[in-house]
Design a protein that fits this description.
The complex is a heterodimer. Chain A is built from 3 helices and no strands. Chain A is mainly alpha-helical. In chain B, helix 1 runs antiparallel to helix 2. By secondary structure, chain B is mainly α. Among the domains of chain B are: 61 residues, Up-down Bundle (Four Helix Bundle (Hemerythrin (Met), subunit A)), CATH 1.20.120.1200; 34 residues. Classes of the chains: A mainly alpha, B mainly alpha.
């Protein structure tokens, strides 16, 4: 019977980060891009808590707290920007965001 | 979650994965963080997401993924594979304790507690409060200010664009 080690948590954290990064890269819907960003931050949180637990150090867990705060602020601002963008363009897709390009 | 094209099932899968991460926090004995994860992420953030999804009434149409080129796809798979291989090789290092509830780097923990500069891990919310208010006082204030700035920014954004003439705002 294999026991769970921090490496398993780190593998899972990197997989969460990779899936979130894939979502950020391939999705056109900005809502889904924001959700994938949340998934990436969650992967980082898992890695931080695993390191904090295994190193018997509280700092990682406290940093997770700050990351959650920043993520909440980022999501609220991103969704407000998205609603403003939707009111201008009637679309939530990132190909409509090419105003600076031409 | 990233493969479902419609936003609402994607958000529901996201809630499932966030609750799963909260369960992982419970396994890692970070109970306060697990409660925080369920309340903040699975509660507030995802409710906000679902609210915006249903407010804007976005459907699956036009939400096709970008065409990923074969070379970039192969390089991404290669990168993730290398990461996983490195982590698997790390996990094959013989572990003296081998249990999730034990300390994995006891010498590190002893050193940290010996010089007294670091806070030792403890699952209680009391130690969270102590760490936040004693060692991380300035970052706590900065994050509070960040939340205030985000709130003001959201209010200004929704005020400016809801007026009929965007020039007057």
């Amino acid at each position: 019977m294999e026991t769970v080690t921090p490496q398993h948590f780190l593998i899972l954290a990197s997989l969460l980060f990779a899936v979130g990064f894939l979502g950020v890269v391939i999705r056109r819907n900005i809502l889904l891009v924001l959700m994938s960003l949340e998934l990436m931050l969650n992967g980082i949180n898992v890695a931080l808590v695993a390191f904090s637990r295994s190193g018997a150090n509280m700092d990682g867990s406290l940093f997770v707290f700050f990351i959650m705060t920043v993520a909440a602020a980022e999501v609220s601002l991103g969704l407000a920007l998205l609603v403003a963008f939707y009111k201008k363009r009637k679309s939530v897709f990132s190909e409509g965001m090419s105003l600076l390009g031409n | 979650m990233v493969l479902s094209r419609h936003p609402v099932p994607a958000a529901l899968f996201m809630i499932v994965s966030l609750v799963g991460v909260a369960a992982l926090f419970v396994l890692l004995e970070a109970f306060f963080l697990a409660i925080l994860q369920v309340l903040v992420y699975a509660g507030a953030v995802m409710v906000l997401f679902l609210f915006i999804i249903m407010l804007l009434d976005v459907g699956p149409q036009g939400g096709k993924a970008f065409r990923v080129k074969l070379l970039s796809m192969a390089s991404g798979v290669f990168l993730v594979g290398m990461l996983v291989v490195v982590l698997v090789q790390l996990s094959e290092v013989p572990d003296s304790t081998g249990s999730a509830s034990a300390l994995f780097w006891p010498e590190l923990a002893e050193e940290a507690t010996a010089n007294g500069s670091n806070l030792t891990f403890s699952p209680s919310a009391q130690s969270f409060g102590f760490g936040l208010l004693a060692k991380y006082m300035l970052p706590l204030q900065v994050s509070g200010f960040l939340l205030l700035a985000a709130m003001v920014g959201v209010i200004i954004l929704s005020k400016k664009f809801s007026s009929s003439d965007p020039e007057e705002g």
